[in-house]
Write a sequence for this structure.
């Protein structure tokens, strides 16, 4: 596979996984959100703290949903390919009761061809 083909495959996987994360959030499915992260992922949610692993990440998203936040949408999204296995997504985001910035979502291609989040750093503004 050429580098161009590898980048296209990676971008397709990242876009699909990011869309699935947003769909899970918008249907209030915290487990579905957490499923888009690697088992040992690290999430930095400013100003709330750092969450390690899918159990802590799922609990964070469940609390956000329980607090009534919904309808996430990204804008000004940029995806930069780092290598044939990983890419970084940055974006602005808005929800019904909050808005902010995705500073860095590190998406990594998995053996099954899907992408999962290894690192997630975002801020509520």
């Amino acid at each position: 596979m050429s580098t161009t083909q590898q980048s296209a495959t990676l971008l397709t996987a990242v876009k699909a996984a990011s869309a699935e994360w947003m769909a899970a959030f918008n249907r209030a499915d915290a487990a579905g959100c957490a499923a888009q992260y690697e088992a040992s992922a690290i999430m930095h949610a400013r100003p709330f703290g750092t969450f390690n692993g899918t159990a802590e990440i799922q609990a964070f998203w469940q609390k956000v949903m329980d607090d009534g936040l919904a309808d996430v949408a990204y804008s000004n999204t940029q995806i930069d390919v780092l290598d044939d296995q990983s890419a970084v997504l940055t974006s602005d985001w808005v929800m019904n009761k909050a808005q902010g910035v995705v500073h860095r979502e590190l998406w990594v291609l998995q053996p099954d061809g899907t992408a999962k989040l290894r690192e997630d750093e975002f801020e509520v503004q």
About this structure: The beta strands are 37-46, 49-52, 73-81, 86-94, 99-109, 115-124.
